[in-house]
Amino acid sequence: MNNLLKKLKKANKFSFFSFWILFLLYIGAFLADFISPYPYDCQYRQYSLCPPTKIHFIDKNGKFHLRPFIYGIKVINPYFNEYEIDYSKIYPIRFFVKVPERKIFGRIKFGICLFRVEDEGKIFLFGTDIHGRDIFSRILYGARISLSIGIIGVCISFLLGLLIGGISGYFGGKLDTFLMRIVEIIMVFPGFYLMLALRASFPLNLSSIEIYLLIVVILSFIGWASLARIIRGMVLSIKEEEYILASRALGLSSFRIIIRHILPNTFSYSITALTLSIPGYILGESALSILGLGIQEPYPSWGNMLSSAIGNLKILTTAPWMLIPGFFIFLTIICFNFLGDGLRTVFDPKNW
Amino acid sequence: MEKILEIKNLIVSFKIREKKVKILRGVDLSIEKNEVVSLAGESGSGKTLTGLSVIKLLPKNAFFENGEIYIDGENILEFSEIEMEKIRGEKIGMIFQEPSSYLNPVYTVGNQVEEAIKGKINKKEKKEKVIQIFKEVGLKENVYFKYPHQLSGGMQQRVLISIALINNPYLLIADEVTTALDVTTAIQIIELLKNLINKFKLSVLFITHDISLAKIFSHKIAVMYSGEIVEIGPIQKIFENPLHPYTENLISCLPEKYKKGDKLKTIPGNIPDFENLPSGCSFHPRCYYKKEICLTNQPGKTQIEERFVRCFKYGNIVENRKS
After folding, report:
1. Contact A349 B88 (CB under 8 A)
2. Which one of A134, A265, A323, B143 is least enclosed by Cβ atoms within 10 Å?
3. Is the reported ipTM for this assembly greater than 0.95?
4. How buried is residue A101: exposed, middle or buried, by Cβ count under 10 Å (0-12/13-18/19+)?
5. From the CA of B11, how many Å to the nearest CA of chain A?
6. How far apart are CA B219 and CA B199, in angstroms?
7. CA A281 from chain center: how many Å?
8. Residue A182 touches partner B, C-beta closer than 8 Å
9. Cα separation of A299 and A293, whole Å?
10. Residue A350 DSSP class
11. Is the pTM of this model over 0.90?
12. Interior CA angle at A231 toward A228 and A235, to 5°?
C-alpha cells in the first residue's frame, strides 16, 4: 500500500492529492456519527434555510480568543427566513463534547461528538435546508450512501464485466455469440430509461436499506455490459500472445489462464474504466433521487439533497448553500478521474 | 532402451480457406531416455508444429488427422484436455524461441516461475525452489523481483529455461531457443542447456534451423523437409556421410568448411508451397540427383544401418500414401 502511494506520487501529483481527498471523504463518511454536530434527521424548524455560520477568533471589540467561537442567530422574519447575527451572544466551540444519545451506525453507543456549541447556540457550517437540518451533518451521512454506492456498484459490474468479457473472448465460438447478444440487448436500451424501468418494476414503499441495495443492483446491472464488450475485444488480442501459449504449455487450466494471465493484462485499461465509472454510479443515484425514486427522506444522500435544492428556483437564489452537495459530487468525481489516471500509470509495469 | 517419446505416422493438417492442407505428412520420430534429438530444417518445414503436437497445442485452425504420439507409453492424442494439463509442465517442459514475448509483462519473473510449480507446497518453499533453479541456470537471486522487460534477452531465456525445468520434466522441447539471441549469448545458452541436460538427465527434442548448433550436443538428428523427416540418424554419421541430397546440401552450406575467400554455397530454390506440393518427392525441384521416378512417386523409408532416409538414391521403396 505504501509502495503504491509512492508510485502514485511519482506518477501523477494530482492523483496523489485526489487519493488523499477521497481518503478524507471516506473517513468523514465512516466517522459521520462522530464528526457531525447534529444527527441527520434533527430539525430546527425555527432555523429553516439559515445561512452558513461563520467561525470567529477575534470578537467585535478586537479581543483575540484562543478558542474559536460563533455568534448567536437572531430570527428577524420566520416566514421569509431572514436571519441576523446576534453579536450579543457568544458561543465558544467545544471539542469532544459528550452527547449521551449518540450511536455509531445506529447501534453501538458512542457518546462523543467532535465539536459542538452550547445548546442554545447553533453551529451550521454549511447552513440548513428547508426543514432546518444541518447540511454539514447531512453531507457526512449522505456520503455513506453516495460514496459507497459507487464502490460497491463498480465492484459488482466490474466482476461481471471482466468474467463475462474474459470467458467470451477466450473461448469464442457459440458461447461468445450468445454472451455478446445478451450484452447488446442490455446496451440497446438507453441506460437512464432502463434504470427507470427497472426501478419502476419494484415497489415504492421499501425501507432505505432495501432501496439502497436495489439501486446498487440496478446500476451495476446496467454497467457491466459495455465493460464486458471492451474486455472481450482486448482478450481476443491478448489470447494470441505467445505468453498465453507458454502458460498453456505449462499445463495451466483455462480458467487460471483467464484469471491470472489475460485479465491482468487488461488492467491498464480496466482500472481506468473502473475509476471513471464510479462517478456514473454517484450520478445515477442522484438522478434516481432527483426523480424521487432513490434514497428517501429523511435519510440523506448527496443526490436527494441536491434534488431538494434544485426543485425550487426561489431556494436556489436565496439559499445557494443548498447546492453544496453538488460541489461534493463534483469533487468526488474529479478526484476519481485523477486517481484513475494515476493508477493506470502505476499498474503498467513498463513504467517502473 | 526406454522410449520417452514416440511419434508414429503423424499427420497434421490446416484448414485454409475451407481447404484441407497437410503440413505434417507422416512424421515418425522417437526419443529414448537421456537422448538428445535435433530436428533441423528450413523455416516452414513443420519443425515447430511437430514440437507443438507433442504437447497437443496446435494453432486454432490445425488438427490431427492421423497418427499416434506416445509419451511414456501412453497415446496422448486420446487424452482429454484436462489430462493434458497434467502432462504439460510436469512431464514435458517447453522452451520457446522468442523469450520476451513468452513472458507475461505484468508479473515479476519470480512470480511466473513460481506459478509453474506443480503440487501443493507453501509460499516459502516455492520461493526457495525458484531461487534454487535460478542458481542452476545462472541467474542472480534479485532477478526474482524483476519484470520481464527489465531483463536482457539472455536472462529472459534463462528464466524460460527455469520455468521449463522447475518440475523436473523428463522430456524437454527446445524450440529454436537461440534464434532471438545474439551469437555470444546463444553459445552461453547452448552451453547452459548442455550442462542442464546432463545434470537433470533430460531427454530433449531440440528444434533448430542451424545444424551446427545441433552438432554441439545432440545424439541424433532428424532433418525435416516440407513436413516430412527426410533423414534421421546418429549425428556423427550424418555429418560424416550425409545420405539425402538435402542433408548433403545443408551440411555443405556450413561456413566452417570453407577457406577464406570462398563463396558460400546455398541451396537453390525455396521450400515448396504446402498448398501445391510438387508431385512425387517434394524435394525434386531443388535436387541435383533427380531421376524419373522422383517426379511421380514419393520415396518411402529406406533403412541403411541405423539410419532412415527417404530418397530413391538408395533403393526404390515407394511410399503408399494417398496424397
Report:
1. no
2. A323
3. no
4. exposed
5. 21
6. 16
7. 8
8. no
9. 13
10. G
11. no
12. 135
Q: Which residue ranges of chain A lie beneath pLDDT 70? A: 1, 106, 349-352
Q: From the candidates A238, A247, A250, A255, which should be mutated to test the interface with B, based on the most B CB atoms within 10 A?
A: A250
Cell 529406406, residue?
B302
* Three-state DSSP state, B167: coil
Q: Residue A132: which H helix or E strand, with range?
A: none
pLDDT value at residue B272? 83
Residue A23: the pLDDT is 92
Q: What is the full DSSP assignment across B253-308?
A: T-GGGPPTTPPPP---S-PPPGGGPPSSSTTGGG-SS--HHHHHS-B--EEETTEE
User: What does each C-alpha distance from B272 to B26, B42, B229, B243 come to in angstroms?
Assistant: 17, 11, 15, 21
* Cα A240 from Cα A262, distance rounded (Å): 10
Rounded Cα–Cα distance for residues B145 and A59 (Å): 62
What local confidence, expressed as pLDDT, does residue A351 receive? 65
- Residue A179 pLDDT: 92
**pLDDT recorded at residue B323:** 47
Output the pLDDT for position A180.
Answer: 92
Burial letters for A237-261: b for 16+ Cβ neighbours within 10 Å, e otherwise? ebbebbbbbbbbbbbbeeeebbebb
Could you tell me which residues are beta bridge partners of residue B15? Answer: B20
Using 70 as the pLDDT threshold, list the residues of chain B that sit under it.
Answer: 1, 320-323
**Nearest in space to B71 (alpha carbons), one of B205, B177, B183, B233:** B205
- B183 φψ region: left (φ > 0), alpha (ψ -120 to 50), beta (else): alpha
pLDDT tens digits for range A182-195 = 999 888 888 778 77
Give the span between the Cα atoms of A345 and A339, in whole angstroms. Answer: 10
